[in-house]
Design a protein that fits this description.
Elements: H1 2-5, E1 10-14, H2 18-23, H3 34-40, H4 45-56, E2 60-64, E3 84-87, H5 90-97, H6 106-109, H7 111-123, E4 129-132, H8 133-138, H9 140-151, H10 174-177, H11 202-216
Parallel strand pairs: 1-2, 3-4
Helix pairs in contact: 7-11
Length: 223
Amino acid sequence: MYSFASRDDFDVLDEPFYGHYLANTDLDIVHPSHDEIVRTMETDKFQVIKTINEKARDVNIFVKGMAHHYLDASPDFILNWSNVILVRHPAGLIASFSKVIPNPTINDIGLKKAVQLWEYLKSNGQHAVVIDSDELMVDPERYLIELCARLDISFSSRMLKWKKGGIPQDGIWAPHWYANVHKTSGFQLQRKTEAQVPVHLKPLLDEALPFYEQLQQFTIKNH
C-alpha cells in the first residue's frame, strides 16, 4: 500500500471493507479499535463498492484489502478489478499477528480465504497475481517491475520510497498494526531469523501451511 501511495498516478484505500467485516461477523477475538472502526466506517458492502468504483472513474485506485474481509463466497465485484494476492509464510504471519491478537484462528489470518479467492477468480477465467513478501525483499525493484508488468502498468521508482511516520490514508487501526512500517522509509531487508510462533499456535501453523503451499506454485519468484 505504501509503495503504491508513493506514485503520483494512484490513490490508495486502506482496508475499506474492515467496517463491513466487523459489523457482520461473529468473532471470538477482539480487534483493536473495533467499536471505532464500526462507528466511523461504512459497513454496507454495496456502499463500499460504490465508493471504490466512483473514485476509480477519476484516478487509479489501489485497494488494500484483507482476504477475510470479503465475506461473500462469490464476490463478483472483484471480477472487474486487477487482483493481487500477497502471501507471507504463515510462521511469520502468525508470529506477527499474535503480538496484537493473541489467539487467532485460520479464518482470522486470511490464508484460507486467499486460496478461496484465487480459486473463485480462476473459476471465472481470471488469474490473480500472487506475490510473496519474502520474494519481494530479495530485490524490491526487480520484483515491483515484474508486478507492474503483470498488471500492465508502468513501473515508477517512486514505489521504492516513502516518508517515515505513515501516510494520510492509514486506517485508524494503524497505531496497533503499522508501528514497524512507520519507522521505515522504504523496503528494508530484515535479519533472517526464524519466526517465533507461540507454542499454543503451532496447530494453527500446521493448519495454515497447506494453504500457503498451495499458493506458492503460482507465486512470482524474484530471480
